[in-house]
Amino acid sequence: MKKKIVWGWMSLMMTTTLVGCTTGQNAENTSSENGNEQTVNLMESNEVASMNTLVTQDTASINAQVHVFEGLYRIDQDNEVVPAVATDMPEISEDGRTYTIQLRDDANWSNGDPVTADDFVYAWQRLASPENEANYMFLLDGTIENGAEIINDGMSPEELGVTAINDKELEIQLEKPVPYFTSLMTFPPFFPQNEAFVEEQGREYGNNSEQILSNGAFNMENWDQSSIEWDLTKNPEYYDADKVQLENVHVDVIKEAVTSFNLFQSGELDQAEIFGEHVKQNEDNPDLQKVPDSKIFYFKMNQQKNDQDTIFANSDVRKAIAYAIDKESIVDEVLADGSSASYGYIPKDFVKNPETEADFREDAGVLMESNEEKAKEHWDKAKEEIGDEITIELLTSDEDDEKKVAEAVQYQLQEALPGLTLEVKSVPLNNSIELTSNSEYELAMGRWGPDYQDPMTYLESLRSPNNTNYESEDYNELLDQISNDYGNDPETRWQAMIEAERILVEEDTAIVPLYQQTRSLLINDNLNGMYYPSFGASTIFKYAT
After folding, report:
1. Which of 25, 82, 90, 210 is least crowded, fewest Cβ atoms below 10 Å from its Cβ?
2. Could you give the CA distance from residue 11 to residue 59 in angstroms, rounded to a whole number?
């Protein structure tokens, strides 16, 4: 069975309002350049939950991990996968199942130890081991040889199809051709771990900055799991340290758009994320950049809670909710940050048809547009089973933008669906992730940012069993065909993914896509070289100046 998680991606970004407060750096030090020393002040919307790459599940953690650790491959400023600890792109066998990768001789850990092929074998075996309860363990199921048997049937993790041929050569055996596997290796769960250090730290590994050993561009300082600020300092042992210009990056957790705006205005932040009225007021500001993202926000409708069917087990309820939401007004009036309404689960400008180069959304089309008449029709039919008066709790995180979207949807649904009372419950993001992961909710705001550059990163998240308790033999069977039968048939695979999305969103209405995020950022004009990948980390500043 595959373990599913909910990304706080994503991803991927914008505790109380801190208007007038100061960050951990004085304003006069912002973007300072003293000799060769450069320091910038950035923000995250949430705390870093862990620096153990096995338990990654939120955007803030992924962002930090991508700068503190480095895998075989990374994502460059053109959104392409390029070598990192690897010397070159993998040598792939004719059948697509064997990957041979050479490692750099000059890749070191921050304590001076060399990064070896064994560090990847150790990390991936830990990822596969069920006792470690890794959030992304399921990525090995059906990809690397014996992954499924280790996860599901008790086979030893040492049987995972990854071998250190020598210190600097890694061989990977796949169950079958996996078209996206190279991009998957840019994702933190596939980063190396230093066995001696991890074993010394035990279960505390990655819980604070003293229990981290880096192999990336930066070391992490002044951080533990409760921190609302931390520092990333240049790692002198990093193989590309000569090209890393930033000596120190100070990060503050800021959850309110008004706070981030005020701190940017006062010179205490070099980059601030804003939305709504602050975006409208800054449309002509040369510091404003709108950065497209691949993160999809959507409604999760839990069909079973505490072993009992919920009202969302009724397909008419799900369709009534889907048809009743005016997504365009949400992105235009509430968010106003460049985000776009989503009429499918796969984002636009993410992947292209392997034959025609057409965007996935262009080929897949529009699914489940807003329609008041159809919403009322399905709601009237649903009330024959659920009754005339119904109360539903909508779970969201406490992020400013998400709360405002929830309030807008509350108004829309109560107006469109007579007899419905929608109660909004906002909790810290990590609490929201825990509740949804355990299916302890009725209706919830979900978010999914891609782990790798392929539509299956979205479609697999709703394979049953999952935390919405959506089950479909047809959907699961189609995903199996995509994974097992079409690896060397790109066009058939593409059409099958389009059909799978149609079943998920339109035929079964298992989820309600709401919007695809665009991040509106105020960026100090002295800060250059930042970029924003469409998958994995949301922000890369390794080579920024």
Report:
1. 210
2. 4
